Amino acid sequence: MGRCGSCGSCLALNLVGAALCWFAPQGIAALGRWSATANVRFTRYFAVQLAASAIAYVPLALAFTPWARSEFGPFDVQFCRPVLYAVYFFAGVGIGAAGIERGLLGVDGLLARHWACWLAAALIALFVWMGLTSLRLNGPAPVAIQVAADLGFFVACATGCFLLVAESLRLSVARRSTPLETLSSNAYGLYLVHYTFVVWLQYALLTAALFAVIRAAVVFRGTLVLSLIGVLAAQRVPLGAPLIGAPRRAATTS
């Protein structure tokens, strides 16, 4: 059974982000101002994102390899990835501070308009990284191959993330869906509670005589349904609503 190695890092980053909002709100505002320029100066924004990812990932991947990890309880940590997680986390914080659904994340923004380009870039980057990684797995590889594979990994991550956002924006305009809008409005709550269901559903199916793809489908669907039930239940509790992120409701008029 696999473990979710990012959840512990995400929890720690959420705590860091909350502390920054409390003690250094000007830092969050500065991230927002920088992110607000992404839609008009995207080349610069993307180059900085790639450079920060390279600094965050490549040295640690070379020092520890991409596969070295430490496990404790239900968590594990891949030594090469926590700083890379931080880069993406604070990129998201900056975009959120600049205003969701505006600029880069606008339905008429650069990402949504050029989704096909991101699809091509993501596929190319993915296959390049896979090819370089296969060379690395066949035995001791020269340092140049190791560096190339590590560079390929974070480029594939970047293009894949931008593709996911671009495609989501495109589909949100093409067709509206009530179930998807419900998931969207409760996305933060689902993110907070999903890990418990992911872990225990995997444990429950550990000895089941099922193909891996069927297990994956059951865990995914079960986690989605149970997480949504948990979020909606928590929103009905006075303390739970502000913690788990209750969807905004339109103001009533008398």
Gyration radius, rounded: 20 Å
Separation of the first and last Cα atoms: 55 Å
Could you tell me the strand content as a percent range? under 5%
How does the major sheet shape up? 2 strands, antiparallel
The count of helical stretches stands at: 11
Q: Spell the H/E element sequence.
A: HHHEEHHHHHHHH
How many distinct beta strands? 2
What structural category characterises the helix and strand content?
Answer: mainly alpha
Sequence of strands across the biggest β-sheet: 1-2
The tally of structural domains comes to 2
Helix % is: over 70%
Unreliable parts: 250-254
Please tell me what the overall shape is.
globular
Mean of residue pLDDT values: 85
In short:
The protein is mostly helical. It has helices at residues 6-23, 25-36, 42-64, 82-98, 110-113, 115-137, 143-174, 178-185, 187-204, 212-234, 240-244; strands spanning 69-72, 75-78.
Give an account of the 3D structure.
This protein has 2 domains: 6-177, no CATH class; 183-244, no CATH class. It has 254 residues and is mainly α. The relative contact order is 0.09. Helix 2 (25-36) packs across helix 4, helix 3 (42-64) packs across helix 7 and helix 6 (115-137) runs antiparallel to helix 7. The chain has a two-stranded antiparallel ribbon with strand order 1-2. The longest helix is centred in the middle third of the chain and has 32 residues, at 143-174. Residues 250-254 have low confidence and may be disordered. The protein has helices at residues 6-23, 25-36, 42-64, 82-98, 110-113, 115-137, 143-174, 178-185, 187-204, 212-234, 240-244; strands spanning 69-72, 75-78. The protein has 11 helices and 2 strands. It is globular and about 60 Å long.
